[in-house]
Amino acid sequence: MEEKDIVNTTAEELSSAKPDYEKEIASIIRSNASPAQIKDKLLDYHENDIAAALDSMSISERQRLYRLLNIDELSDIFEYVDEDNIPTYFKELDIKKKAAVVSEMDADKAVFVLQHLDKKTRDDLIELIGNDARRDIALISSFDDDQIGSKMTTNFVLIHSTLTIKQAMRELVNQAAENDNISTIYVEDENDVFCGAISLNELIIARADMPLSDLIVTSYPFVYAKEDIDDCIEWIKDYSEDSIPALDENNRLLGVITAQDIVKVVDDEMGEDYAMLAGLTSEEDLHEPLKQSIKKRLPWLIILLGLGLVVSSVVGMFETVVAQLTIVMCFQSLILDMAGNVGTQSLAVTIRVLMDEDLTARQKFGLVFKEGRVGLINGLILGILSLVCIGSYIHFFKGASILFSFSISLCIGAALMLAMLISSLVGTLIPMFFKKIHIDPAVASGPLITTVNDLVAVVTYYGLAWIFLIEIMHF
Amino acid sequence: MEEKDIVNTTAEELSSAKPDYEKEIASIIRSNASPAQIKDKLLDYHENDIAAALDSMSISERQRLYRLLNIDELSDIFEYVDEDNIPTYFKELDIKKKAAVVSEMDADKAVFVLQHLDKKTRDDLIELIGNDARRDIALISSFDDDQIGSKMTTNFVLIHSTLTIKQAMRELVNQAAENDNISTIYVEDENDVFCGAISLNELIIARADMPLSDLIVTSYPFVYAKEDIDDCIEWIKDYSEDSIPALDENNRLLGVITAQDIVKVVDDEMGEDYAMLAGLTSEEDLHEPLKQSIKKRLPWLIILLGLGLVVSSVVGMFETVVAQLTIVMCFQSLILDMAGNVGTQSLAVTIRVLMDEDLTARQKFGLVFKEGRVGLINGLILGILSLVCIGSYIHFFKGASILFSFSISLCIGAALMLAMLISSLVGTLIPMFFKKIHIDPAVASGPLITTVNDLVAVVTYYGLAWIFLIEIMHF
Hints:
Chains A, B: It holds the Pfam family MgtE_N. Chains A, B: Belongs to the SLC41A transporter family. The structure is a homodimer of 475-residue chains. The first copy, chain A, is mostly helical. Chain A folds into 3 domains: 134 residues, MgtE N-terminal fold; 102 residues, CBS-domain (Roll); 183 residues, SLC41 divalent cation transporters, integral membrane domain (Tetracycline Repressor, domain 2). Chain A contains 22 helices and 6 strands. In chain A, the strands form 2 sheets. Chain A has a 3-stranded mixed beta sheet with strand order 1-2-3. The N terminus of chain A is likely disordered. At the A-B interface, helix 2, helix 13, helix 14, helix 15 and helix 16 of A face helix 2, helix 13, helix 14, helix 15 and helix 16 of B.
C-alpha cells in the first residue's frame, strides 16, 4: 500500500484499503509452494481470518489445509468457525482428528461446537475426547444457559498462595503452554479455596525477593458460577477486567469469564432486549429458516390480536359518538399512535434503568414522577400544537366554522395531553410491576402497555368528545 | 462464610452471600488503625470497589484516603469513578494532585474525566499535565466520537522487529511498569510501520534461541483510527482478541482497542439502537435531568405528530364509508396496530442484519423475499383467526345477521393479511433504502415506517370496506 494513497482519505476508503486476508489465505492454499512454505505463510495469519477463508475454499483445498496444520493449530482455527459452518467442516475430518481438535479447544468453545453437531456425531465424539477435556465440557454443560457458568472458560492460570515470586513465575511459564488467559493469575490457598488474584504485569516487574502475598489482591471481585447472567453482568462489566473468576459453592475456582466472553454476553443480552422491544421472542439473524422466524414472531402477534380485539370492543362502545360526529374518527389514529409512542419511550427508559441498577423505593418513585412530568410537558406542547394546527386545518380545508373547528381541536389537544401523561406513567409502572413479581419486564411489558395505552387513549378521546362536543356543545 | 451455608443455595442467595466490599472499605477508612495498616488493607481491594466506596464516605474520610494513597494508586481508582461523581471528587483534590492523577491515567480515561469537568478546571489542568500525557490526550481527543480512535488507549507494549527473544522479554519487563495491556505485544519495523503482533504466552514459552520473527503474526488484524465505529466494531468483535491495534494513515501504531473498550462500545452501540427503536434520540439514564429527557424525546414526537396528521387526513377521505357503516370504525385500531407490530418486527430484524453483515445484492433480495413470506404466512394465520373470531363476535354479541357479520370479518381478515404482507416488505425495504443512501437506518426508519404502514393499513382496510361492503354487498 502506497503511503500517499491513504493520507487524507475518508473512513470508507481507509476501510476498503485494508488487505483482504481471506482472499490472500485462499490463494496461499491454492499456490504451488511446498507444504512447509504454505504452512509457514498460513501461520502468519490470525485464526479468525483462516476460519473465515475456509468458506471460500473447495473441499479438497480445505482438506489440504487440515493435513498441513497440526491439531493445536487446527483447534485454534475451529474455535472461530461460525455455527452454520461447523457441521460441514467437521464432516470433512476423520473421527479421530475431530476428537483431537475438540479436546484441544477451550472447553466453552468445545461445548458450542458439540451443540452444533448432530446427536450421533456428538455421542461418538464424547467417547473419544480426552478425560480432562471431557470433564471440563461436562462442567460447563452442567450450567443452564442463563447461568454465568455456562459462559466461562476453564482456560486460566492458578497458583498456590505459598509460592515465592520465582516459583510463581516458573509455574506461570509451565501453565502458559496450555492456557492463553495469563494476564491475571489466580491464587488458591492450602484448602484449594480461591483467595485472590495477581496481575501479570505486577508479577513481571516485581523484585524476586518480595513476598508473593504483597502482589495478591485478596478482595478480588468474583461471581458464583450458578448466578444468573442478568444479575451479575452489569456488575462484571464495571470492573473492566481481563477476566473475572467464577467459583463453586465452596469458593473453589471453576473457571473464568474473560473480557471476550463479556463482549458476547453483553451483545446477546442487549440483542434480546432489542428483540423484545420489537415484539420478537428472541433475536434473529440472516440465516434463520423461515419456519423458525414465523415461530418467533407469531406468539406475540396472536396475543396482540387478542388484546386488539379488546380495544376494538371498547371502541365499539363509542359507536354512537362516531355516528353523530364522524369527523372525530379521523383523529383516532393520531391519539392512539402518540400515546403508543410515548408509552414505548417510557418503557424503553424504564427497562434499561431497571436492568442497569438496583433501585431503592425512593429512586423508583423519582423515576415515575420524572416520567410523569416528561409526559405532561411533552403532552402540553403537542396538545397546544394540535389545538392550533388541527383547528386551522378543519377550518380552512374542511370549511367548518371557527367554533366547530376549534372545539374539535380543543378536544383532540386535551385528549392528547391526558393520554400522553397517562401513557408515560403506564409505561413506567408496568415494567416495575413485572420486575417486582419476578417476571422479565422486557418480555411481558410491551403488549400489555400497547393495549392499556390504546384503551386509555380511546376512552379519553371518545369520552371527551362525547361529553364536550355532544353533551355540552351539541354539535 | 461457612461451607454448609452455601451448598444447595439458589442463585439469589449466592449473589447476596457475596461480601459487601464497599462497606468493608468504608469501615477500614473509619477505623483507628495506623495509616500504614489502613493503606495496606485498602490495597487488597479492587480499584473499582474503592471507587464505589468513595460515595459512602464523608468528604473528610475521602480526603484521608487521598492522603494515604500515592498518585499511581489514586489514578487507578479515579479511572473507575463514574461520571456523576467526577466533578465532586476532583474538587476535593488540590490542583497539583489533580494534574498528577490525570497525567497518570490511561489517556482515554483522562479524556473522559476532562470531559466531565467544567471548562475552567479543564483548561487549568491541561496546563499542568505532563507532556507525554498531554500529547496522548490531544491525540485521542482529535478523533470524533464516532471514530474508533476516540475509544482507543495509548497503553500498549511496542517493540522492534529486529530484537532477539531475550531482548524482547527485557523490553517487555521495562514497558510493563508503565503499561497494563501486555498480553499482546505489538511489533514495528525499522520505519516505525506496524508489522504484526506477538501473543505474550507464546513469548513466555519460546526458547531463547528462536528468532523473534517466528512468533510474529504478521497479518494481525488492525483498524485505522479514523474508521467509523459502526463500520468496524462487528469485525473487531469477531477476532475475540485482548486488543486490536489502531493505526494512522501511514500504518504507524497510534493506540489499541482493548476488549474492555469493545465491551463499552458494543454496549453503547446496542444501547443506541435500542433507544432509536423506542423513538428516543439517544440512550437515557436514571440521572438524566428533566430538561434533557424532554429534549431527547420531543423531536421524534413532533415529527410523529406531523406524520400522524397526514394519516388522519387520509382517514378523513373515508369519512363517508364510516358514516354509512360505523361498525367498521371499531376495528381500525386493530388493523393499524397489527400492521405496526409486524412492521416493527421486520424493521428490527433488518436493522440488526444490516448492522452485523455486509450483504450482497442477492442476500438483500433473499431477506426481502423471506420477510415478505413471513408477513404473508403470519398474515394468513391471523387473517383466518380474525375472520372466525370477529365474525362470531359480531353475530353473537352484536346480534347482526350471519351474512353481515362474516362479510365484515372477511373484510377485516383480508385487510389484515394484506396490511401485514405490505408492512413486512416496507419494514425491510425502508431501512435498506436509508442504508443505501448512507443515512443511519436505525435513526430514520422508525417514524417513516409507522406512517407508511398506517397509511397502507388505512387505505387497504377502508378501501376494501368501501368496495366490498358498500359497493358490492350494499350494506
